[in-house]
Amino acid sequence: MNPIKFNFEDLKVYQKALDFIDDTYKMTKDFPKSENYALSSQFKRASISIALNIAEGAGDTNAQFNRYLNIASGSIKECVVCSTIAKRLDYLDKEEDYSNRVKLEELSKMTSSLQKYLKSNDSRTNN
Asked: 2-33 burial by CB neighbour count: b if 16+ within 10 A, else e?
């Protein structure tokens, strides 16, 4: 049987978002049980939202894809805040928080670059 693959699965930003989801699940596994329905849950949902919005927007119009990338960008910022809170509560050490920030900065730059590409592509087709 041939594997079924969707176009968005080839996007590097989507692959990086999946990697960050893996990291988030590993990280939050060690959070206190009292955080299961609070910070752990929010951190996981925000990380998942990044990949979901990239996937949902891909293949749509450039304007729509840009809108979904804006939502993904908001989720990236949510993850920054979740990591900061986790560090402040001593659930993560400085190195773990720094590692998260490096990955999230890369995701942010990738989504921003993709948005610029989409906008420049739109302006070319509208002229």
From this structure: eeeeeebeebebbebbbebbeebeebbeebee
